[in-house]
Write a structure and sequence with these properties.
The chain is mainly beta. Helices cover about 10% and strands about 50% of the residues.
């Protein structure tokens, strides 16, 4: 009996004993490492997916659209739910079946089309006119006294045009949707206006300016506040940001109304609402394209000329890189629609969301000239043989 009691007593003592601390510590570390491994695998698979094989392989000629020769395809731009055909004497809006919706006569020597915020602006580069279109028809056609250099269109329908100016480095004219000049800014001493971009709701206009009058090239970014009245827009010099010598700002864009980005060939600047400037350099890299998607910044860059292209996505919330991966050798086209974007690289067509998740990856059998996105699930592809659509 005593032996049985001893056995029972020992059993109770064992069941009430404290857990082994070393075992718990080992188990905790194992679980943490396991979770970290799954997270790491997720990001690795996300970043390497673009370098793997396509999800779908299709023949473009079997898709919807219409055929045309290479010379005509070069004149087509994805626009709204169709394409805009731009020639020296005519601008026409076509359906994806090739039927003409409307056309307008023009007289351009070197026409160039910019599609932005639901509008299309067609300008005669180094000529004296430009025009703006919606999917319903021509909105305005403007003749200028000086040569047209560049244009930007706001989300409120304003257009800002860089033109030459006698006895000045250049000027910027702002037009409303009817073609009336609402504002004018002349650069007498700042330098040559190179590129420009509206902020949301047309609150500000960012302009990159290049001054070559000194011993070294000086690039600055001017922020112009747009104060709209009933009859005009007052263009007020709000801020001037001096950047590094010998750096040329090729483009500017807003991630939101708080942060302004200025892009050079091998670096970029982030200017916050307080005027603080952060410089980000690409080590031996070249920035080829930059654009904003859903307030995030997308940069297509390479390690040099004719090198592999990579896509980097930067969160505008904290400036951190949330995606960085190889996408291919030759980038032919890209386009943005709301919170997603499409990229044509080599003979692959990718659709990404703004965080870098690949929604579609299609291999095609023709070279891409331009791309567009129509709605949420259709890609417009202008290839060397015509216009086609891809559902994804």
């Amino acid at each position: 009996m005593e032996n049985e009691k001893d056995i029972q007593s020992n059993t109770v003592k064992k069941s009430n004993a404290k857990p082994n601390i070393k075992f718990i510590l080992f188990l905790s570390v194992f679980v943490i490492l396991l979770i970290a491994n799954f997270i790491l695998l997720y990001f690795i698979s996300k970043n390497e997916k673009a370098a793997q094989g396509a999800d779908t392989v299709i023949k473009l000629s079997a898709q919807g659209g219409f055929d045309c020769d290479y010379a005509e395809a070069q004149k087509l731009y994805p626009f709204s739910d169709g394409v805009l055909k731009v020639t020296n004497d005519r601008v026409a809006f076509l359906t994806l079946s090739g039927n003409e919706v409307y056309s307008s006569s023009v007289n351009y020597q070197n026409p160039f089309c910019v599609v932005e915020n639901g509008y299309a602006a067609v300008m005669d580069i180094n000529g004296y006119s430009y025009s703006v279109y919606s999917d319903k028809g021509q909105i305005m056609k403007i003749s200028t006294e000086d040569k047209v250099k560049s244009v930007a269109i706001s989300d409120t329908g304003l257009s800002a045009v860089i033109v030459d100016k006698e006895n000045a480095y250049g000027q910027i004219l702002i037009y409303d949707a009817s073609g009336k000049v609402l504002g004018q800014w002349i650069s007498y001493s700042s330098g040559y206006p190179v590129s420009l971009k509206f902020s949301k709701n047309s609150q500000y206009l960012a302009v990159s300016v290049l001054n070559t009058s000194g011993a070294a090239v000086e690039s600055t970014v001017k922020l112009i506040k747009l104060v709209q009245t009933d009859k005009k827009i007052e263009m007020i010099d709000y801020a001037v940001y001096s950047l590094d010598e010998s750096k040329i700002v090729l483009s500017v864009l807003f991630a939101d109304n708080e942060n302004l980005y200025a892009f050079c060939a091998d670096s970029y600047y982030v200017i916050d609402a307080s005027g603080n400037i952060k410089t980000v350099a690409f080590d031996s890299g070249i920035i080829n394209y930059s654009f904003a998607v859903n307030n995030n910044i997308c940069i297509i860059y390479s390690d040099g000329v004719d090198q592999i292209n990579k896509l980097q996505i930067i969160s505008s919330d904290d400036g951190k890189v949330i995606y960085d991966s190889v996408i291919g050798t030759d980038v032919f086209a890209f386009n943005v629609f709301e919170d997603r974007f499409v990229i044509g690289v080599d003979r692959r067509v990718f659709v990404f969301d703004s965080d870098g998740n690949i929604e579609s990856d299609t291999e095609i059998d023709e070279d891409v000239i331009r791309l567009g996105i129509m709605g949420k699930k259709k890609i417009i592809v202008i290839s060397t043989t015509g216009v086609h659509t891809i559902n994804y």
